[in-house]
């Protein structure tokens, strides 16, 4: 062949090989199924040691994939933990960490939420051509200024499809299940009402006896105030469910108030349909389970079937949902091209006990504390990752990892670049998961209780120790309890905590139950260790910028003009009992 022809055929071959490489790279983009349970404890799944709660499908993931045994939620509370998961950043960086007692959104019509200048993995994966869906609970806000801006809604954060709860499942959402606002209502309404009634009676008596000239206007005022308070309470109780407990599909309210009938089935079926619709494109499915947060619920097939009451029923039904999703992946031949992740947003809620004394919270296994505090029980959560052929089945990783790590891991697998204009706190998990690295990239991790830096974890590069230094610890109540029962959840500041100077130090590698603090007399290097950790905390604090507080009182309050009401309801009743069908716009 003349050289010119040779050259041409060589170039042609080169071009073809480049093309096919690009093609196979596009085709090999893995799908992502991220399953996040709500308030499930690390002591609940069978694969983490539970022998009586049946979770065969979660266990199936563990058998076929990697089990993380020191997987940490970035926060022990829903809203901040989920904000961190979505953005790969500590929640203080996005303003999703409260300075007050209330650390999560309670009303659908509040103005706080995940800010628009934050970038979620969904937004970045969508840019890479992924079909994206969030099915289940969001809890990261809806509106900012009016009830049509959807500034915090999943659709503004990269999700093409959303079906589920914009806020969260709460006891108050289910008639007859009691109230999480119980103590608040008592303080805000019942106590003032009693004071008012007493004052009114006393004044009336004094007036009647002719002992005091009490103007009638004052008596009328007091009576009106009392009636106003009672009226407000009645309105709150009457309207709470429709106004805060509803389902959305996309940007439409689809059921108001939500019905618990077959709810897990309905959402699971929707997730399965999403997978079917998108079998030919790379997809991201975040299946954000509504269970096992209270109010607990289970369909006929699961109610009364477990050995752990209503909690066990709900957990076993959630496991069934996980199984349905694994099954459809199998059926469509997608298993080997899909990374499946399973976790919980935080530890089990220890204080979740009904007025009848029934335990409605899960198990944190051997670990102390639970949801709402940074003892291991609050943040050490299940962490399973399965990807046959890529991740070694049955591998166990005991190194510290975080739910923030999914962000860089997913982006790297999808071939997307990490944002360069901000700090990403998560680390790519693949080297650990594939056994290429034996050490976590997290030398230090910072444990926040809402806005406040609660503890530092240090895994020194040259040692097996896992040091954890608490700057403060919650005051458990009653004395000797494993949680803060009078307040339903532990608070993070003021008289609710005990500060520690020097910090309270544990070595989790020897004392995972956090029973015996290390002291200068038991650990000769105590002061060096504490100084190193304090230094890391100071350096970290310097990287945290002041940002608008999304959980300020103003942003938490119910704002009538942000309230959503289903389109087909009559007048202001906000009642649409039948779930509106998908209007065929789903991607
Ligand atoms: C709602 O707010 C958005 C953004 O602030 C604005 O563009 C829109 O016009 C507002 N809609 C109404 C109905 O006021
Ligand atoms: C729930 O699902 C079961 C079986 O799938 C069905 O028989 C029942 O009617 C459903 N209940 C409601 C309220 O839809
Ligand atoms: C299994 O889970 C149930 C429900 O949370 C709990 O009551 C039980 O103590 C757990 N068992 C173990 C061994 O942790
Ligand atoms: C999926 O991967 C596993 C593990 O590498 C392999 O045994 C199996 O044959 C693969 N299945 C398909 C359908 O390729
Ligand atoms: C680990 O390294 C630090 C300095 O980086 C040193 O002070 C410490 O003594 C080392 N510890 C061990 C167990 O070798």
UniProtKB/TrEMBL annotation:
GO cellular component, one term: endoplasmic reticulum
PROSITE patterns associated with the record: SULFATASE_1 (PS00523), SULFATASE_2 (PS00149)
Transmembrane segments: 187-209, 216-240
InterPro entries (alphabetical): Alkaline_phosphatase_core_sf, Sulfatase, Sulfatase_CS, Sulfatase_N
Cofactor needs: Ca(2+)
Keywords annotated in UniProt: Calcium, Hydrolase, Membrane, Metal-binding, Signal, Transmembrane, Transmembrane helix
Sulfatase N-terminal domain ranges (all copies): 30-416
Signal sequence segment: 1-22
One GO MF term: arylsulfatase activity
Family stated for the protein in its record: Belongs to the sulfatase family.
PANTHER family assigned to the protein according to its UniProt record, in alphabetical order: ARYLSULFATASE FAMILY MEMBER, STERYL-SULFATASE
Protein name, as recorded: Steroid sulfatase
């Amino acid at each position: 062949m003349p050289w010119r022809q040779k050259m041409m055929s060589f170039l042609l071959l080169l071009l073809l090989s480049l093309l096919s490489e690009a093609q196979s790279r596009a085709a090999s983009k893995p799908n992502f199924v991220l399953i996040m349970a709500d308030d499930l404890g690390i002591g609940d799944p069978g694969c983490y040691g539970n022998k009586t709660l049946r979770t065969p499908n979660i266990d199936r993931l563990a058998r076929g994939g990697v089990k993380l045994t020191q997987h940490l939620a970035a926060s022990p509370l829903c809203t901040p933990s989920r904000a961190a998961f979505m953005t790969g950043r500590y929640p203080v960086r996005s303003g999703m960490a409260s300075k007050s007692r209330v650390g999560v959104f309670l009303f659908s019509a509040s103005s706080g939420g995940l800010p628009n200048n934050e970038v979620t993995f969904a937004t970045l994966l969508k840019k890479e051509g992924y079909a994206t869906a969030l099915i289940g609970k969001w809890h990261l806000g809806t509106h900012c200024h009016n009830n049509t801006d959807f500034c915090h809604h999943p659709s503004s954060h990269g999700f093409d499809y959303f079906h589920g709860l914009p806020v969260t499942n709460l006891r108050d959402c289910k008639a007859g299940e009691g109230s999480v606002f119980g103590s608040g209502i008592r303080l805000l309404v019942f106590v003032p009402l009693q004071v008012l009634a007493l004052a009114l009676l006393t004044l009336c008596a004094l007036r009647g006896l002719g002992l005091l000239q009490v103007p009638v206007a004052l008596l009328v005022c007091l009576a009106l105030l009392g009636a106003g308070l009672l009226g407000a309470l009645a309105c709150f109780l009457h309207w709470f469910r429709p106004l805060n407990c509803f389902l959305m599909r996309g940007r439409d309210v689809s059921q108001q108030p939500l019905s618990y009938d077959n709810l897990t089935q309905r959402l699971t079926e929707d997730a399965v349909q999403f997978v079917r619709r998108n079998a030919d494109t790379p997809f991201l499915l975040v299946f954000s389970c509504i269970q096992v947060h209270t109010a607990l619920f289970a369909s006929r097939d699961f109610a009364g079937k477990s050995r752990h009451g209503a909690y066990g029923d709900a957990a076993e039904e959630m496991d069934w949902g996980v199984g349905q999703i694994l099954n459809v992946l199998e059926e469509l031949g997608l298993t080997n091209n899909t990374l499946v992740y399973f976790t919980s947003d935080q530890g089990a809620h220890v204080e979740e006990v009904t007025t009848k004394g029934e335990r409605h919270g899960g198990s944190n296994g051997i670990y102390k504390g639970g949801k709402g505090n940074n003892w291991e029980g609050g943040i050490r959560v299940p962490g399973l990752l399965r990807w046959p052929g890529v991740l070694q089945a049955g591998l166990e990783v005991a190194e510290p990892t975080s739910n923030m790590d999914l962000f860089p891991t997913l982006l790297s697998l999808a071939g997307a670049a990490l944002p360069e204009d901000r700090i990403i706190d998560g680390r790519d998990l693949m080297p650990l998961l594939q056994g290429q690295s034996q050490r976590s990239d997290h030398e230090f991790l910072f444990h926040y209780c809402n806005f406040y830096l609660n503890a530092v974890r240090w895994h020194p590069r040259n040692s097996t120790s896992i040091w954890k230094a608490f700057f403060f610890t919650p005051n458990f109540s009653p004395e000797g309890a494993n949680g803060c029962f009078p307040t339903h959840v532990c608070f993070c500041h003021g008289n609710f905590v005990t500060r520690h100077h020097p910090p309270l130090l544990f070595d989790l590698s020897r004392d995972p139950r956090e029973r015996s603090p290390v002291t200068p007399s038991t650990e000769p290097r105590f002061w060096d260790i504490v100084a190193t950790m304090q230094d890391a905390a100071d350096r970290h604090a310097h990287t945290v910028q002041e940002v608008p507080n999304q959980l300020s009182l103003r942003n938490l309050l119910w704002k009538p003009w942000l309230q959503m009401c289903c389109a087909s309801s009559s007048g202001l009743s906000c009642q649409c009992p039948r779930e509106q069908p998908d209007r065929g716009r789903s991607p």
